[in-house]
User: Which sequence fits this backbone?
């Protein structure tokens, strides 16, 4: 059994991108590396938590010492999160695809001359769902990647999603955050925004895990 302030606590962490299939060989994806989510899972583990790590196809490896639940699509991610409940906290760090292809093909689409037309459907919002579910963890933390007015947009997102905290960051290309090693975040809680200094993603994860430990220990 683990020791540390989160010993006996169960935390679900989502991480990485999702892949939404077009046909058996093609998919729609995004540029999330999964680095911040993996670092958060490791930091929670280091504080003694039992971690269910629900991860899309990330480019960084999953940490040791956590229960890895690999998924591909947003629908699979939602089902995996539901299956992992109950939990004391949930940290939704995944870059979930907003849309899936509704008219995907079971067979590879052939080049016939006519261009394929993809019809999109909206994916389930896992963060909004878990925040309002009857089995809601005591603490639900979401992320907000913004390119302008970070604090204002993230504060609105916190209310809209119904989560407790939002970890907001500026992902304008000039910041190098997406796929980079460092992150500059603002933590939005019920008492307002807190600007954290620029730190590497492991330091952001350690600081967030310590705050989570204070909140649910
Ligand atoms: O709405 P937006 O995608 O900006 O919200 C980001 C936050 O919501 C992240 O915490 C992300 O993991 C979560 N999210 C989710 N399911 C979705 C879309 C976003 O859990 N379908």
Assistant:
């Amino acid at each position: 059994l683990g020791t540390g302030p989160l010993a006996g606590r169960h935390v679900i962490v989502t991480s990485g991108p999702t892949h939404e299939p077009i046909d058996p060989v093609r998919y729609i994806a995004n540029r999330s590396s999964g680095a911040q989510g993996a670092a958060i899972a490791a930091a929670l583990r280091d504080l003694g938590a039992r971690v269910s790590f629900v991860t899309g196809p990330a480019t960084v490896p999953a940490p040791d010492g956590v229960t890895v639940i690999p998924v591909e699509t947003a629908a699979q991610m939602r089902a995996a999160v539901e299956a992992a409940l109950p939990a004391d906290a949930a940290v939704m760090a995944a870059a979930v695809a907003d849309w899936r292809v509704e008219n995907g093909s079971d067979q590879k689409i052939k080049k016939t001359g006519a261009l394929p037309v993809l019809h999109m459907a909206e994916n389930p919002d896992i963060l909004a769902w878990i925040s309002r579910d009857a089995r809601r963890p005591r603490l639900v933390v979401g992320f907000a990647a913004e390119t302008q007015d970070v604090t204002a947009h993230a504060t609105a997102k916190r209310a809209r999603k119904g989560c407790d905290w939002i970890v907001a960051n500026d992902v304008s290309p000039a910041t190098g955050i997406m796929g980079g090693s460092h992150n500059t975040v603002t933590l939005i809680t019920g008492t307002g925004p807190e600007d954290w200094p620029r730190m590497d993603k492991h330091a952001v994860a350690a600081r967030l895990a310590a705050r989570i430990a204070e909140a649910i220990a």
Observations:
- The mean pLDDT is 95.
- The first helix runs from residue 35 to 46.
